[in-house]
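Hi R.,

Here's the chain you asked about this morning:
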Amino acid sequence: MVTLCIGDVTGHGLESGILMVMTQTAVRTLKEVQEIDPLRFLDTLNRAIYKNIQRINSDKNLTLALLNYADSKVSISGQHEETLVVRKGGKIERIDMMDLGFPIGLDENISAWISHVLVDLEPGDGVVLYTDGIPEARNIHKQFYGIERLCEVVSQNWDLSAEQIKQAVIDDLREFIGSQKVFDDITLLVLKQQGNIVHDL
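And the predicted structure, written out as tokens:
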């Protein structure tokens, strides 16, 4: 099984960075003890992070998507931006994650809010994950890049490799932004199944 996470901490700076490092460590620890149930994984992660946040008297929290891939199936859970499931021909299914979890570190017990969806992947299918810095990036005219444009670029380039798809999105985003300053982090993860192998970049 392959486990992937993407998250976004509130705010910027040292305190937010510390929370992300704590989260990365907790995720790796849960992987080392081979916790694969998404509800237990996210619930345990949240309790550990929540107690650390209280201990350091912080008001930060984070969104976090958890994906477990095995045997051509991907389990998607947690609360984050939409997960894009892309089919072989470039057709995109947008999975709303608002009802699949709760922000990590905001409340001590989030088990009642955690759920997951299971998606079958055929050869040529894949998944795209991103942080809000992509759709919320603006150009000099204060226009947002938007999720629709992201989907369009991914769909048009889906016949390429995962690396090339990622680069096509980044190139298009840079062209859109132009000389405008970037105010948020930009993170993009593209996974594409080829046969029984998933390539992630």
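The mean pLDDT is 91.

Let me know if you need anything else.
M.
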